[in-house]
Amino acid sequence: QQQVKQSPQSLIVQKGGISIINCAYENTAFDYFPWYQQFPGKGPALLIAIRPDVSEKKEGRFTISFNKSAKQFSLHIMDSQPGDSATYFCAALSSNDYKLSFGAGTTVTVRA
Amino acid sequence: DTAVSQTPKYLVTQMGNDKSIKCEQNLGHDTMYWYKQDSKKFLKIMFSYNNKELIINETVPNRFSPKSPDKAHLNLHINSLELGDSAVYFCASSARLVPAYEQYFGPGTRLTVT
Fold first, then answer.
1. Is the pLDDT of residue B1 over 70?
2. Measured between CB atoms, does A20 come within 8 Å of chain B?
């Protein structure tokens, strides 16, 4: 049973546009929410992460928005570039656990 | 300087064979993992080792046997390979077991069983 639900499965965005990926969870014990970026033929790489004590975290063009009451979090990629074309995974973890629960992934294609 | 490395990158073999995948991390982490990524890109944890001790074995067939000779290495041996074992296998590491924040993944080994 997947503990983190991710949508959409794929999206296409024009260069300069905004990519938005959404995730939802049920386990209220989760207290760490990372996003991983995976390019074809490579391993997932930690992109950005958030704890539930903040509602937003920004690193460059990547922003995580977190809604604790709705148990949802999202990744926004601003000014999307062709080099951002990759698969993005949301994940969740409890601080007293050791198993990352991954979403199913979103393949983002940025058209030049 | 590669943090988590795996060999081989590609592995093509026939059903029934036995094969191994090697993983090394130079981050000084205590905890290492094996993940399986299926054809739909879904990532699922298989094993976790902490200081050379097995912590997680996620309903993985006993044909899969991890071995950790030291904290920096975690190998995966697979016996009697089956078609359904075809997938990409990722090694990962984290500084500690709990909490397992910031997991660093290797480049993956694409296993194809024919």
1. no
2. no
| pLDDT reported for residue B56 | 76
Residue of chain A nearest B46, judged by CA positions = A99
B98 touches chain A (CB under 8 A): yes
Q: Rounded mean pLDDT of B17-28?
A: 97
A positions 29-88 inside 8 Å of B (CB): 32, 34, 36, 38, 41-46, 49, 87
Over residues B15-22, mean pLDDT: 98
> Which long-range contacts link A68-75 to residues 24+ away (Cβ below 8 Å)?
A70/A24, A71/A24, A71/A25, A71/A26, A71/A28, A72/A22, A72/A23, A72/A24, A72/A25, A73/A22, A73/A23, A73/A25, A73/A33, A74/A20, A74/A21, A74/A22, A74/A23, A75/A19, A75/A20, A75/A21, A75/A23, A75/A35, A75/A47, A75/A48
Q: Distance between CA B104 and CA B28 in Å, rounded? A: 12
Does the pLDDT at position A106 exceed 70? yes
Q: What is the mean pLDDT of residues B42-63?
A: 88
Q: Does B55 touch chain A (CB under 8 A)?
A: yes
Average pLDDT over residues A61-88: 97
Tokens representing A99 are 């198993």
Closest to B107 in 3D by CA, of B29, B22, B5: B5
Using the structure block, give the residue that is written with the tokens 């993985």: B60
- Partner residues linked to A46 by β-bridges: A36
Segments in A25-76 forming alpha helices (H): none
